[in-house]
Amino acid sequence: MLILISCLLLFITALALVVLRVMLPNTQYAWLVALGGAILALISVFSWLAQMPFELIMPAWQPTTAFVNPILFRADGISWPFALSIKALTLTVLLTAVARPFFANSYAWVGTLIIGGLGVMAVTANNPLTLLLVWGALDITELFIYLRSADGPTNNEKVVTSFSTRALGMGLLLWVNIVNFSQGSTFEVIAPSSGLYLVMAAGLRLGVLPLHLPYSSESTLGRGLSTSLRLISAASSLVLLVYIPAGSLGSVLTPFLMALAIIAALYGGWNWLRAPDELTGRPYWIMGISALSVISALSGNPLGAIAWGCALVLVGGALFLASVQQAWLNRFLLVGAFSLSSLPFSLTASAWLGKLSFFIPFVIIAQAILMAGFIRHALRPGGRDSLESQQNWSRTVYPTGILLLIIIQLLLGWMGWDGARQIGAWLQAVIVSTLAFVLVWATPRLRILNPIRAHWVNPTTSRLSTIYQDLWTIIYRGFGRISQTITLTLEGEGGIMWTLLFLVLFVSLLTQGTP
Length: 515
Description:
The chain has 515 residues and is mostly helical. The protein has 18 helices and two strands. The protein has two domains: 2-461, no CATH class; 462-515, no CATH class. It has helices spanning 2-23, 30-46, 79-96, 106-124, 128-149, 153-179, 195-206, 223-238, 254-274, 282-298, 302-320, 327-333, 335-340, 360-378, 392-412, 426-442, 463-491, 495-511, and strands at 54-57, 72-75. The longest helix is centred in the C-terminal third of the chain and has 29 residues, at 463-491. It starts with a helix and ends with a helix.
């Protein structure tokens, strides 16, 4: 019941904002309503600790012969850190909204609350059917938001292709559900033969396997809503990696998938380091951290997948929502570098407890590049707004939101889940930290690392994005031509004849086998 309460608090608050916008469009209390709901939702997640683990089983669908597996949610050491991270990000988006233009945009807050609620449902889903349904709701919500904000047919195509890659990932998860139909109804009893399907399903949605950028143009969305969409959507996919059966890791394909994930981590980290600003590099941040999560899962360390997933939301969220230039706050953002370092008692201290063997040097390089990129963006002078023109209460509320994500990073390093209070692979962490600071020192001194010259990093113009965009355009327009041909056929003079023919065929199929 606590899971349901935590989600309903966000959904009911979103509904209340819609009612207020319709009934009282000039009300000044919409933000306070949204903030109150988000605070209560965050507090409710902390209350899970008193009862974990526990489950929420929804009423069975009818007929039970067709729907054997129930809709099942579970709160435990896997889902709790993800849920806490998502709730904290949702609250921070609302707290930092006071420093952004068009502050009184309650529809953006509605979208943020709905995405947050669906994200918690995704990370607590405990069987493939439940996760499929939540993924579908999350993707449709995202599709609706982007189609409303997309400008022009080109951006519409990008939205559709982004949705298509997620649909392919859902198809693989559906296959896992079919294969395990007789095994049981939870992720814990999934057959080892399904492990690689789980990796591919998550990899497709994240842009890691195969390497691609699954995100559409989002320039017309605000910093808060777009950050919430991107990071929560990624977290809802990363949670799937935690359930990879240990028996599937002995496959001959595992080293091949590990190599592909390392390539994605290096590619994402390199573009993240050289990105001209943090928002331009955000897709590469998600790709790089997601790839590290895939590597942890494939090395037999599900705790590492959780740690990187939480770091993606908390560390990335603090950076992407920091839109105001404040020297002391920028220094506090560097706590995120500690969270990314895998040093003892950090958020990612449990990241490399698996068996990496030959791949260790490449993982160290990828992690160091991502960490160096974060430090560079956190300390980037200029390019951000100022709070000087804001009211006094805004100057207090805004940094509170950023500090919340920083505090949660430190908190998860010490309590609440199985990956807390870990020493981890401390020698590897020291090497990563040293290499990261060397890269930060060398960035303004070496031309190849100089981000000012890295204009090709823009996701809309990168070579990789162009290749996939051309491929998807061919498929997209091909289906469009097929649809147009069918429409013209049915609307022509023979449309009635074709309709009657299809009706006769349909009736004949239904009557086959009737005594």
